[in-house]
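Q&A log
Question type: sequence-to-structure
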Amino acid sequence: MIPAGLLRAQAAPDQPTGTQPPTVAGKLVFDVASIRQNKTDNSSHSNFSLDNGNAYFTLDKSTAVNPNGGYFSATGIPLLRFIIFAYNLTGTQELAIRFNFWSGTSSNVPKWAADERFDIEARSEDTPMPTKDQVRQMMRSLLEDRFKLAVHMETRQVPVFALVLDKPGTTGPQLRQHAADDSCAEAVRSDSQPESVAAPSSKTHEGLPTVCGVIAHLPPSAPGFLKFGGRNVTLATFASSLPTQTGMIRVPRPVIDRTGLGGKFDFSLEWSPERDNPASDSDASGPTLFQAMKDQLGLKLEPQKGPVDVMVIDHIEHPTEN
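Response status: OK
Response body:
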């Protein structure tokens, strides 16, 4: 039963049967969709995880994560959040589009697209369990159709921090190649739960996140410390997550991986944020962030210029009526 008010988003005369969503002009689309601006102060929620699926919670593209079949419902979500989800932006790209903070990475985002919140209800009727990647593509089609969204990607040479080895050929004790025989847990969670990565996870596997592909905050070993870690992640993913996981003030440039190390890794990193604050009169113990990176991971950051892919919004409008 389609909720009242849902209207057909795009005409789809030749809808495939089975689990493949309908297509229009080669694009995956929802069968029906309704979009309304939300002017309340109520909390945001969604029946489908809108994680950007990179630095914070990575899922296999074939993993079906929607417990509600082909029905999608999101309430009070900023438009920019839908864009980040639909285009599967990396951690670096997400920060660049959210904040005009880094030199040379402005994305031309109008203020209303970042501030105004929307409710979206949509359904893919012939797809009882679409994958997350399929929902991304359907959301992209919806944004293009109803918000007239047009974007392009640019590669810009901007000031960055290069993630490099502190000593050639050597990694630290808390950074190790992911074991081939490590059977990773499946990413199963309720999509109605908050998606914040700020709260430490109570579920760990040998001190690391239970689910592979995750970079998440972890319980620290002592009060006042911060700790995060990941299993089966690339160093490119680790690099792009650093400004978010540690704060853009501490890491005020995009970070790109120039370690030369391929494959995927398990790691954990713990430090004392008070030691990073020059204005603090605290006698806190523990390493600074950059000392912890060297001692625990064998990595450091070097100021350089390097390529950063940035999404630029060419055109966007308030949504057409339902």
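Response note: Residues 271 and 291 are 8 Å apart (CA to CA).
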